[in-house]
Structure formats: C-alpha cells, structure tokens
Amino acid sequence: MTHKEILAAAGLNEAALTGGTLAVYSPIDGAEVASLHETDPAEMPAIIARAQIAFRQWRNVPAPRRGELVRLFGEELRAAKAELGAVVTLDAGKITSEGLGEVQEMIDICDFAVGLSRQLYGLTIASERPGHRMAETWHPMGPVGIISAFNFPVAVWSWNVALALVCGNPIIWKPSEKSPLTAMAAHRCLERALVKFGDAPDGLSQLVIGGAEIGAALVDSRDVPIVSATGSTRMGSLVGPKVMARFGRPILELGGNNAMIVAPSADLDMAVRAIVFSAVGTAGQRCTSLRRLIVHESIREGLVEKLKAAYSTLPVGDPRASGTLVGPLVDNGARARMLEQLDRARADGGIVHGGESVSDAVPQGGAYVTPALVEMPSQTECVREETFAPILYVMSYETLEDAIEMQNDVPQGLSSCIFTLNLREAETFLSAAGSDCGIANVNIGPSGAEIGGAFGGEKETGGGRESGSDAWKGYMRRQTCTVNYSAELPLAQGVRFDI
Amino acid sequence: MTHKEILAAAGLNEAALTGGTLAVYSPIDGAEVASLHETDPAEMPAIIARAQIAFRQWRNVPAPRRGELVRLFGEELRAAKAELGAVVTLDAGKITSEGLGEVQEMIDICDFAVGLSRQLYGLTIASERPGHRMAETWHPMGPVGIISAFNFPVAVWSWNVALALVCGNPIIWKPSEKSPLTAMAAHRCLERALVKFGDAPDGLSQLVIGGAEIGAALVDSRDVPIVSATGSTRMGSLVGPKVMARFGRPILELGGNNAMIVAPSADLDMAVRAIVFSAVGTAGQRCTSLRRLIVHESIREGLVEKLKAAYSTLPVGDPRASGTLVGPLVDNGARARMLEQLDRARADGGIVHGGESVSDAVPQGGAYVTPALVEMPSQTECVREETFAPILYVMSYETLEDAIEMQNDVPQGLSSCIFTLNLREAETFLSAAGSDCGIANVNIGPSGAEIGGAFGGEKETGGGRESGSDAWKGYMRRQTCTVNYSAELPLAQGVRFDI
Amino acid sequence: MTHKEILAAAGLNEAALTGGTLAVYSPIDGAEVASLHETDPAEMPAIIARAQIAFRQWRNVPAPRRGELVRLFGEELRAAKAELGAVVTLDAGKITSEGLGEVQEMIDICDFAVGLSRQLYGLTIASERPGHRMAETWHPMGPVGIISAFNFPVAVWSWNVALALVCGNPIIWKPSEKSPLTAMAAHRCLERALVKFGDAPDGLSQLVIGGAEIGAALVDSRDVPIVSATGSTRMGSLVGPKVMARFGRPILELGGNNAMIVAPSADLDMAVRAIVFSAVGTAGQRCTSLRRLIVHESIREGLVEKLKAAYSTLPVGDPRASGTLVGPLVDNGARARMLEQLDRARADGGIVHGGESVSDAVPQGGAYVTPALVEMPSQTECVREETFAPILYVMSYETLEDAIEMQNDVPQGLSSCIFTLNLREAETFLSAAGSDCGIANVNIGPSGAEIGGAFGGEKETGGGRESGSDAWKGYMRRQTCTVNYSAELPLAQGVRFDI
Amino acid sequence: MTHKEILAAAGLNEAALTGGTLAVYSPIDGAEVASLHETDPAEMPAIIARAQIAFRQWRNVPAPRRGELVRLFGEELRAAKAELGAVVTLDAGKITSEGLGEVQEMIDICDFAVGLSRQLYGLTIASERPGHRMAETWHPMGPVGIISAFNFPVAVWSWNVALALVCGNPIIWKPSEKSPLTAMAAHRCLERALVKFGDAPDGLSQLVIGGAEIGAALVDSRDVPIVSATGSTRMGSLVGPKVMARFGRPILELGGNNAMIVAPSADLDMAVRAIVFSAVGTAGQRCTSLRRLIVHESIREGLVEKLKAAYSTLPVGDPRASGTLVGPLVDNGARARMLEQLDRARADGGIVHGGESVSDAVPQGGAYVTPALVEMPSQTECVREETFAPILYVMSYETLEDAIEMQNDVPQGLSSCIFTLNLREAETFLSAAGSDCGIANVNIGPSGAEIGGAFGGEKETGGGRESGSDAWKGYMRRQTCTVNYSAELPLAQGVRFDI
C-alpha cells in the first residue's frame, strides 16, 4: 500500500492532509506525506474556553456513563487496529508488530479505565468528633492539556485520554509535529466513539496541530489546570516550572537512561534476547529503551560476544517488511546526534561495534543505522546522557552494591532491571537500597510496561505517573469533607472557644 | 511566669537564647525574648550532606522500627504538652487553649504515623504475563526540607516530621524567623526521643535558624528531593517552580480565602459560634481562617445582627489570660496591613464593624485589634485577596448555585463550608459541581481539620497534601516492579520480536 | 412471538427443551414450556472433578487474559440483550423493562470485572525485620458452586461468574428449577464467548440442571471450596453450616425484609414513586423489594391516600405488554402464600387494600394479583417475616430513633432506606446507630442496587457480599508472604532463640 | 520467685486465686497454682446483655477516642511486660524470651490499632446516576465472643481485643481452662487502662472463666454476632456451623500442619536454625510450629545429620531458666499423645530420633520431652494430622512441583515456607500454583508472624483472619449507601417504571 492508501484506510483523506503549512515526513523514506493545516495560536483561548464549557457539563455526567464513552472508544480501536497500527509505522517508523502493540496498549487502557469508572474510590474516614462523618472524595479538575512525543505517537495520549475522560475532564491534545498523522487517525476513532455515545458536550476532546506556540498556550493558561507532557528533560525543565508558577499541575514523563544489571547467575539466553529487544526495539527510541548494560566482570566477555553475534544479524530496514526488527530513526537529525555521540564515546575510550549508517537494501531517504554496542571503560559523561538512538553502553562491575550505585548514578530515573536467578540479588535490587527508578524489573528488559502499573519515575524523569494503579488521581482533585450532623459544635484537638 | 521562665520550662535556657543575630519578639508585648544564633548559609551544604548520609542508613531501618522513634516523640510531646503549649502562646500569640490544641495535633499525628509504620501499603497487581509477578512499592526518597510559617509554628512541622521519619527520610527544618522559639523547644522533644531510641543516625533531624538564604539552600539543592513549604502564595510561587526546575518535589501549603455559605435552613446558633471561632480564632491568622461569609439574602440581616452582638463582646487581650479569645496579631506590620485592607474595603462600599486597634487593658507593645466584620455590596478585589488578620467580609446570595460560584471565584482553594440542614444543599456543595476547595465542611467552620484527613488544596493553595489519608505517599517514591520467574520472555501487548 | 420462538431466538431449540423430566412452566400463563433433561446426581463427582482439573490450568492463566474472556462474554450479552431479556420475562414473569435491566446488570458487571482483571490488588506491607519483604497476595481458590434463585435468574449468577472467572476459578451453576431456561440461554452466551476466547480449559463453566440433590453435591464436596447461594433464609440456614462444617466458604444472599422510613420533610412525590416501584416492581419478588413502610405519624394519612390512589391504577397483566407494571407471581403457590399472609395481617388488626387475585384481562393460567397495601397497628410477627409477594405493610412512628429501632427489629438485614430532606436525619440513618442493613439508601427505594457497590447484608441475610467493591476477595484466598533476602534470621517481636 | 510471687507481681492476689472450682496447674511442675471461681453458665445471658448495652454506647464513641483506650492499654502492657511475660511462662510453660515476645506482640497490635482508629477506611464509589453519592462504610457489629487457646494465652486475645475495641465492639473473653491466669493478669492491664480512660461503658470488656458450657453460651447467642475462636480443628468444626446456623460470623483460627521445603540452593545454616526454632520453640505447641520438613533428596542426608546434631544439644528444662530453649508440654496428656503418635510413625516406617520423656534435671511434675525428629518414607496418615508437640517429620522430594504437591496435601492450611536462594523456586512457591496456606514464607520458618500481616488460613485452618492488614473488617459490618440528592428518581440499569 502507498502512504496515501494507508492514511486513507485510517480515515485521513486528501483534504485533511494537504494545503497546510506543517510538512510531515515519514521516517521510512523521508517522503513528505502531508502538509497539515496548523492551529492558529490566536485560536487557543477559544479552544480552551470551549473545553472549560465542556467541563462544566462533563463533570456532572456520572463516571460510569463517562466510562461508556471510553468503552466505545476501545471498540473503535479494536476495529481499526490494523489500520491505525499501519499509520504508527508510517508516521513513527516502528515495525509492524510494534505499531500493533501500541494500538493494543490503547485498547488495554480503555478496558482498564472502563472498570475504573465504577470505582474512582475515595475514602470514608473515622472522625474524632461524635456526630461527624468524614470522607475524602475525588472530583474532576478541568481541561487537561496533553503534549505527546513522536515515539509513542498515540499510546501515551490514550493513557491520558482514557483516564482524563473517565475522571470527568476534557482534553486538548498537541501531538508532536513529527507524528501528527497518527494523532489525527486516533482522534478520528475517538470522534466516532463520541458520535455513538450521543450526548457528550462539544469540545470534550480537541486536537491542536502545530508547534511550540500552541504548546505554550496550554502550559501558560490557568484554565488548563493539568498539563501532561511527555518528551525530553529539557522540555520538562521548562514546562514544569511554568505550570507550577501559575499553580497548575504538571504530569511529566521525561527522559530515561535505563540500565540492566546482568549478574553471574543470570539466564544468559534470556538476557540476550531481552537486551537486544530493549536496546534496538523501536530503534532505541523508547523512553524505556535499554541504554546501559552493567555486567558482572566474570561474564562480561562472554555476554559481549553473544551480543555482537546477535547484533550482526539484526535485520535493519523497511519497518513494513515482515522480518525487519530495526526500522529507521525518526529523521536525519537523530542519526547525526547518534553518530556524534558515538564519537564522544570513542573519545572516552569506548570501543564501538556497529553504529553505522545503512543505505543498502533500505528505503532511500530514511535514516537507517546499525545499532551500536559500545564497550566503555567506565560510566563517562556521555553515558550519563540520554541519546535517543540504538546505542548500548556496556560497563562491568564487581559487587552488586557497586552495580546499583552505577545504575543510580545518572540524572534520570525512569526504568531499570536486573537479570539474576539469585533471590537475594533480585530483592536487594527492588529494595529501598536498590534501583532508584520508577520502574524496576527482574529478568525482563526495562521497556514494555504493562498498563496495569503506574508509569513514570523520579529525578529528571519528572515525577509524573500515568497509566495504571492510582495514576488516575493525578487527573482529579482531592477533597477532604467533614459533615457535622449533630447539634453540637466540638472543635478538633479538644480546643475550647466558648463565646 | 515570665517569658524566660516559660522558655526555661520548655528546655530553652539562657545560652540557647542569647548572643545571636536574630532578634525574636513576642507578639504578646513586642518584647525581645531572644537573640538567636543563626545558621551560617555556608554551612548548608554540610548540613544537607549530613542528612544524605543519615538517609543511607535510615532508609534501611525497618519502618516499624522507625515508627518506634515517632512513638517516643509522641510520648515526649505528651509529657511536655503544657510547657510547649505555653511557648506557642509566647512565640505566636495564640490563646492558651489553642496553644495546647496545637501540641495535641502533634501528638495525634504521631499516633497516626506509628500505625502507618506497619502499613506504607503498596499494591500487588495482576500481571498480564504468565510467570510474572507485579507490584508497586514505596521507598524512602531522601532528605525533606521543611519550611514552616509562624502561625502554626510546630503543628505543620510535626505533620511533616512524623510522616517523613516513618517513611525513611531525614529532615531539615527551617522555621519562620518570627517563631523560632517554639521550633527549638519542639525540636528538643524530638532530640530526647532520639536519645531514648538509641541508634538513629546523626543528622536525621536538623534545625536551621535564619532567613531567606537558608531557605534557598534547601529549595535549590538536588540533594533535598522534597521541599515542604507552608506560607504565602507569593512564597509558593517562587519555591514551587525552583524546586520543579531542578526536578525536586514541592509540597506546598499556601494561602486560603475560606468562605462559609449560610443557607436559609442553617442552625443559626451553631453557625454564629462557628463563624466567630473560625473568623477570630488565632486572631484570623490561620490559613483556614474564615474570611468570607456568603449568606442567603433572606437571613442576612438577622445573622449580621447576631454577629455584631457576638463581636462586640469578644474578649481581646493577653492570650495567656483565661477568658481571652482574641490575642494579638503577630506584629505591627500585620496590624497595618489589616487597617489598610479595611480602608480598601470601605472604598469598595464596605461597611466596617470593629477592626480597630486596641490599647486598653492589653499588654503594651502587642498589636491588638478588634476583629472586623465588613458588610460588602459584592465580592470586590480586596475580598478576593487573603489578608492574614481577623477580617470577615459578608456578602449575600440568592441561589445556591450563585453562592457556590462566588465561593469558588477566588484564586485560593484551601477550605470552605456550608451551614445548612438541607440534604440537597449539603450534598451539592460537596459534589463535583460544588466547592473547589481541598477542604469542604458541612455545619463546621473552615478551620480545625482533624489529622486523619489530608490537608491542602488546589489553585493558589499550591496543591500539596499533608497529614492524614495517604499524604505519606508524598514523602516516598513509587516503584512499579515486575518479576519474571518463568523461563520465557513474553512481551507486553503481544509484541513479537524474535531474534 | 410464541414462547417457542422466544426461546429459539435465544438459541434454545426444540432438542434442548424436550424429552426430559423437569417440567418448566412460564409464570405468564402457567404453560409448560419445556421438559428438561436433568443432571444425574451420580454425575456430580465427575463434574466437580472436571472443574478441579480446569482449575489447575485456569489459575495459571494471567488475570488480564481471564478478563478477556469476561469481556467477550459481555459482548455476547450486549448482542443478545433483547433475546435474553425476553427469556427472563418468559421464565420469571418480569416486565420487559426489568428483563432488559437484568441483562444490563450482567453487562455492567462484566465491564467492571474486566477492569478488575488488571487489579486484584493485594498489599505490600512494611516489615519490622531488616532485609525482609512482606506482602499480601490473592490467589484463585478453586471451583465455585453457584446456586441461584428464580427471581433473578441470571443477574446474580453473572455477578458470581464474572468475578469468579477473573479471579481464576471455574464455576458450576445450579439455577432454580423454576427458571432454568434463562440459565440455559445465558450459559449459551458464555459458551460462545469461550469459543471466541479459544484456549480456556474444558469444564471451566458447567451448568447443572435439577433439584436439591444436585445442590447438595455442591454443598457437601470439599472440592468445591466456595458455595455462593442465593435464596431463602431457610435454605441458607441449611447450606451455610454444611459448607462451614467441611471448611468451605459460603457466600450467602438470603432474605430481606426491607423498609423505608418516610420522614416529615420527605419529597412525597418522589417517595410515592419510589415506594410503588420498589414494592410492586417484579411483583414484590425481589430480595430487595420494599415490604415495610415506616411513616411519620404526621404525614401517614396523606401518604396512604396517595399510595392507595397510585395502587388503584397500576396496570397488572401480561409482562410482555407495553404498559404493564405488575406481572404475575412465579406460581400459584406464591399467590396462595400471599393471600394467607394477608389473612394473618388482618387477624393482627391490619387493614388490607388490594391483594386480590386477578383473572380479567390477564393471560389465563398465570398467578396475577393486585398489590396489597396493609395498614398495620404495629409491627406484628407477620410483618417481621419475608413474604415473597407484593405486600407492603404501613406502620407509623413518632421519633426517628423509634423508626430506626422498628426498621432494625426484624431478623433480616438486607436493604433499607429513608426519605428525608433533612441532613441530620439522613446522616443518622447512615451512621453506626442507624440502619443495620447491608444496603442503606437515602431518597431511593431499597431495590435496584448498582453493581459498583457490594451487595448483601448481615443477620439472616447471610453475611455474604457479591458484585462490586472488593466482593471479589470472597472468591480468592489471601496469602501473607514474607521473604527474607538477608543472610540473617531475626525473629519477630524480638524473640531470641540461639541454638 | 515463687509461683505466688509471680502472680502477685502481675496483680493476682490470693483472693483472686483461691476458693474456686477450676484447678489450674503450671506446666512447669504440674503444681496447682490456683483454684479459680468459675463463671456460672446461668450468668451468661446477663453478661451478654451487659455487653449489648455497652455496645449501644460504645458504637457512638468516635473511633479515634476508642483508639485512645487501646493506646492506654498498650502503655499498661509496656509497663507490665516483664511481670506479664512471667505469668505466660508460669501458665503456658513458655521460655522467658517467648513469654516476653508474646507480650511484645500485644504491644505491637495496640500501636497498630491506634493508627487504625483514625482510618477504618470505607470507600466512596462513583455512582451511575446523576445527583447520587455512593459510599461503602464500616460500622460496629456488637459484642465479640473470644475463645482463646492455652498456647498463646494472651497474644491472640490481644489481636482480637485491640481491633474489636477500635472497631466499636464490646468483648467477652473465655480463655482456655488451661491458662486462665495469664488471661486474668492481662485483663487487669485492660481494666487499668479503662480506669485511666474514664468514661467507657460498663461491660465493655468481660472475662468469663470456665469450660465448654460457658463457651457454648457465646457460640449460641444471637446477641454475640461475632465469635472469634482459636483452637483445634475439632473445636472449629463444631463452633463454625453453630455460629453460622444462627447467622453469626465465626472467625476461626484452627489447626496447622506447617511444612518447610528445603531446596538444594538453601542456605543450610540458616535453614537449620529456622527449623529448630520453629519445630521445637514453644515445645512445638504453636499453631504455626514446623511439623513437616520436605527436603530435596540431594541434601536430605546432610541436613538430617545437622539437625540430629542440633537436636542432641537442645537444652530441655525449666522455662524460667536462662539458656533453656525447650520447656514443658502443657500437660501429661499432651505428652502421652505425642508418644502415641511417634509409635504410629514407627509403624508407618518412620525412624524416630529423640522424642523421649525427660525426667532428669527438669522440674518434677512437668511433662518434659526431647523433641522428635522422624525420618519418614512418605507422607503417611499420621503425618497429615496435627500433633501439638515437638515432632518434626522429614520427607524428601525430587521436583519442586512434587514438593509443593506434598506440602499442600494435608487438610490444614495455616503456614508454610521454603528455603531457597533460587528466585524461580521462591516465586513459584508464592504463586497461584504454590503453597495453599494463608502464610507463606521464604527463608523464614513458618512461625513468628509479624502483626502487620493478616494471620490465618483456609481449609481446616478455618478461613478466619486476625491481626494486621484489613483483618479489622472482620469485626465490622459493611454498609453500601447511596444518597440521592437530586430531585429525580432514576433507576439503576436503565430500568423504566413510570407510574
């Protein structure tokens, strides 16, 4: 199928894709696949106002009824899974299985959120005063601005949208300028669900297309109480304080610099598979991609040999082709940054395997590379940075304590893992003295989280949580209520004040 | 007892109180009661480093054992309740009952936190993959910087300290320059508990005395991952973004502009008592003090008459004297700001009752005033600001919807209440379309929260939560863990990646 | 449509419905609509053994995957809603809207359980010992025997089945002999879902048709660790102890004797509608049907007049006809018991309005009655019994305390409600000193629970809980786990035991 | 100290201990230490009535205030720890450290329950209907009958009493006839706390002394809604059905037949210490005592040798003597049953080491034995029974699956453990396909639970849960509340019923 056919199959016709100012290129071949109409920044106040009006209606719709909208959305996603997955591939360059996996994740979070819609549990609490009832309830907050990144062009949005809608909040979505097509296709699914739902307010979900100015309107408006932003640490370091300064609530999912510790007892065959998937999957462009390998010195040599062997046979190429495991980087800039980073690594004493541009047997115009395996003498500065590309740095360790220290000694805090069959090592890694990341796995790579858990991490990862567990509380306001149904007026803490 | 005797009874002797650069005055009579040695800002890095070292030890101490320290602290507070309450009165000018109530609140939070120390519940979560175990656990975060305000010189600190210690975090406390003496006396109680406990690490709890520079060191340091700050909205608008910019976690408890709606069905006798206590208690210097009265037009006149009668007999004076209900403002600056604000209210058409300086039959040197009742034609700009003084603005309403609109139409979001015997009104007030405050009460004034609930609010109140419910999670980091104990390596969302 | 056509539309063809020993009659017209093959009691051990084998496989299927089966089941129910609802009407005599409502309830619980399938939350718990991890997890229990009653021939089963399947348990269902057709039709839906699911074990869900002997096999078998039984108190008083005696877990939903207190401030129009629906809906054959009306003496007369007026115009007749609100009783025996009970009420001084057999303009062969309103001088013994028919006893009260006392003074504890606009009355009714029922409503009748809450009650109601909240825990076993990953062996409570 | 002095130190003077009909013997030397006045069974109705009256007052006391009573009780226990521990030793024959540990457990549960008293969390739940509020709250139940066993004469009672009191329930305690003295001493502590508390109702806690008839009064009375019984499976099989038959709630803690699996990778030194403590501690008379050792065949021989060596040096004797690890059995009957059981084991092919009566160097009159280590060819019938004595059966296994099968193949389900350093084995043991016990430990013996977790198990263990987690819910009734504050009356599930 041509690019156009793929987009048409997902409901995006010529008219939607042409005549605008935002050129969109496919990572597959660098071809311009659309020139989109951008949202005029001057319209943003009206868009936000529309969301506020929708909010006043939507917050009063019972949550299980709001859940019905999310259920219908999930049904649309199920029906359009193949088509939408293909747009993910076209727009973000992911291989087919990962494109489908991303849509599956959207479906999963819808199922989860439908269940939530009959929960949204607050607490009833024992009061210290007779004739008093105390409770903590959760209420809708208002419009949620969602700023998403190119590498998960729709899944992370769906985490936000499924929770936000169930929680009673309208949404305004600014997708990455690099992958707006998937956003448009996914939003169409939601629009179809809205039609089936029937009586949702206008402006409940709005998609805005464009660049920094559009995003800034969401970040700066007091009428957007929540801003959920996924992207780089640099972006987060700007967005977070701005939202905070106007007393909004930022939900930040920023960089990761995710490591795996491989202990002597590890099942090495499993480890190799996990390493390769998590280091080169999505061409190393997941926020949870494996970037650092911390191997016990006793097994380092053997493991590196196995990895070199595995890396040497990885099928790099057109992500649409069956058999391809490594698709393109998002653009040439990303490739340039990768190569530059590898030079820095070499300068620090690193030995680089792979990490070269590929131009044979791949679609021309795309930024294809062989994944890089870099043996480092130590964790130098370039290792402590996140490079959004398939670079895997290998270091070695002597004691588990050292390995954990090295794992934690980066500014980011997203994901981490250990491969070991030793109970004490595994539990130590998960303990208060273990990994300092928001995600910590044992015998699993750092990427590929299930939606049932909360996703995010501390430090430069930004501290936000999305997806499962009680991440929904990030989309609501908490209210502590006390009702005095007695005819007395006792004060807490035994204070006396008799007028 | 003289000021000195009171301080000595609380363990603060001459040496601790003299020879320094920070002059401390009692609101009671404006007398200088101490000149304290200030912490040298240059020492802050070492202080923070000491806390970090303590952290590495304390995080490994089992939480129930950490709870034992908090239990011992509670016992010290019980033993010193009268003495510590007297220092609250001396240092913050509160009446005796309120001084004791503040200590009782400290005791309550200790009891609560001891129970928590055997909980700190995370979740086990159903995994979608066979042979996998998923869980969400909570781990200590590191040193907590606590910046507290003069008006609750010790209770808010105790909320933080009880939770932080149980959660595995060291603390560094910068109390207000206006009320450092209560801080010193309370910290002595904790030090005694530490001695009885036996083997806590050095630097687990540190008290730093001084001004903005000291606070800035906590706000700016990456080694203080949590900063819990109580104070003005202005302070919060500076602290929040700074902490956020370096990827720390701010817990902000800022301004309130708390209202009561009085409905036609209200029990007016109860309402009057609640209004007076919450508007003039602590001389209107609680963050939860009642500042706005929104009365149904049908009962406004009668209620205002009752309030004028009640206000006219309020005993203003020495807070140590039995019978006094209204003590001094914290200083002359606070009184000047109050009088100035009343002039603004008059200019907006307000009719002011009371609100005058008092100099007869009160200790000389203190900033005594009669509480002000101000009948306003509408909610003008001066009403929408928080003035930390006993000013109560009275407005009227026609429909409950209007009343709620007016109640929410201020930038702050801390506390709120309604007096009504009508079920529909009460529940509407507590619903998603009701009060937008973090605290919402029915037939109780806005102040005097129990420690079992979470304390805080959205909007300019800063969004933080302290004290009960799961506020403890604000002091820990969340970790989503998945353990693969199978010999397979399935990927989530059904992704295939076979190398 | 004829009875046969209705059954055929729901997938029950001639072969399934004929040639057996169990005659099934429709309450609509008393016609025999099927003679079903009964399960041979001698087969029960093999059936139970099959469930045990299925269990060993199903418990290892990840819960979210188990949830997928329940999602598919929900989809089948959505698709078959009209047809299945019609069988409810045919089999149990419910009016069309209630038949459809029962299916909707099945759909709702499926949505809820799908969400649960990624939760089934246990706890991680702070351990008092260093190097120890403590958790509470929930595991599947084994086969669940479900014994359901005629009046909710499928909804209550669906509560059990949705939870049991997600929790990892096989099910064996013995429906009432009076309404096995709906059971068969509903089980077909599940079977279709199983086919779409693909790889569920044989014997995961089994339907057994027959009488007491079949039920006894479930009650007595140690291989059926959970028996969930809905029905009469008499049945429960036999089943509960038997299950307990062999250390199984009974989940009992037994009788109710549900009251409404109508306070002076009640919105009487709403009250009348709620009373009529909950007293005569399903012809008074819900376990939550309203049976006792406790009215404040000041409004009794007026309310009784309104009710008499409303009762006099209630359309009694064919439940399939649009407009009908009161369908038939389940059989003539039920009618006879109703009339007999009315005689007892008269003997106790009751004045009976309505309560007569209807033979005009109704399908011949059905047990149609006009609902009975009985003014009682006091709560006599016959009032304290549950009669499964549309009898509403009216008593009066003076003080709320008395009303609550009267409401609680029956052996049953299922549902209860109050109509009042007075906050104090409403909260008192819901307080520790209020209703002793498992369900307590304000300004809603006692029937018609949402699936999000737990359903059940104490006293003769049996103590079980089904449906929402954490009722799923009743289908799992709880395990407290402690893992020592240190190299030390400390004992809890500081015990020393040095060998 | 003499027996009398020990009892006097714990507040039990001559008058309390003499002149009655119940002879109490110390296991230490078989001496009669008291002849107690027994409660007249005819008094039981009045005692229960008193509890019911206390209930109506206590349920309205705010839970945090009820918690204050439990806090005071904990303080009394701290003050009397040594004295009370000595009575445990005297009354139950435990060694000093275990006697003190039992009191410590009482203190721990008090701390925990005090924290709970500001929680007792119910849920607020999202309603499907507009203008409706849904919540699940927990209310007091009424008097709790506590029937406790001799082997934990006070700790298990304290679990019940701390939770029951905080939950708002009075208690009536029937301790074992074999250890009533500790009960009396512990109850004195509670009485002192009640005096300090001040205004608790009479009859809040009552102690009844006597035998089966007394117990039966609690079991049979509808006015004792909860019966918490600890003891033998035989007792539970009688009590459970009886309580159930009158619709009460039984909380049963019955037999255990607790196993340890020792895997090849186990830390054998740790395992040996854990085995010995848990098999011979409390002379094998804990419900969680280790009774079955399932050892991998590859390490069986070595482990048995180590155990034989350890067993051969165990100090058996006076439990008051420092150094003693194995005190007496409770009485001669217990010794006879142990010896008889060993004969059965021999008949089944078992090789018995130890297991002999001891009369040298021990107090005369006590039932002292050397612990028995029994090598069994397989898990025969006698192994599948619980014998309350220090008998440890040793079996071997080949695969972990077999070991788990063997571990689960007994009728009891209390506690279990595995010693392994292998992550996969540990996690498998804890999984849905692992141990079927309520307690499952890794690298810890089966005994010595922390109070933070729930205690109990399924199968013949009875299914009850006490102590930590949400065991408190077993002491309360759950109420699902829905409040309609709108002026509409929508029905759930979309049912229409328009009169």
Task: Summarize the structure in words.
The structure is a homotetramer of 499-residue chains. With 499 residues, the first copy, chain A, is an alpha/beta fold. In chain A, 38% of the residues lie in helices and 19% in strands. The first copy, chain A, has helices spanning 3-9, 14-17, 44-58, 63-79, 81-92, 96-116, 155-167, 180-197, 212-220, 233-245, 268-280, 297-312, 332-347, 400-408, 423-430; strands at 22-25, 32-36, 122-125, 132-140, 144-147, 171-174, 205-207, 226-230, 249-253, 258-262, 290-296, 351-354, 357-358, 368-369, 372-375, 391-397, 415-419, 439-442, 454-455, 466-467, 476-484. In chain A, helix 11 packs across helix 12 (297-312). Chain A is globular, with a radius of gyration of 24 Å. Chains in contact: A-B, A-C, A-D, B-C, B-D, C-D. Chains A, B, C, D: Homotetramer.
Q: Helix and strand layout, with pairings?
A:
4 copies of one chain form a homotetramer.
Chain A: H1 3-9, H2 14-17, E1 22-25, E2 32-36, H3 44-58, H4 63-79, H5 81-92, H6 96-116, E3 122-125, E4 132-140, E5 144-147, H7 155-167, E6 171-174, H8 180-197, E7 205-207, H9 212-220, E8 226-230, H10 233-245, E9 249-253, E10 258-262, H11 268-280, E11 290-296, H12 297-312, H13 332-347, E12 351-354, E13 357-358, E14 368-369, E15 372-375, E16 391-397, H14 400-408, E17 415-419, H15 423-430, E18 439-442, E19 454-455, E20 466-467, E21 476-484
Parallel strand pairs in A: 5-6, 5-8, 6-7, 8-9, 10-11, 10-17, 11-16, 15-16, 17-18
Antiparallel strand pairs in A: 1-2, 3-4, 4-21, 12-15, 13-14, 19-20
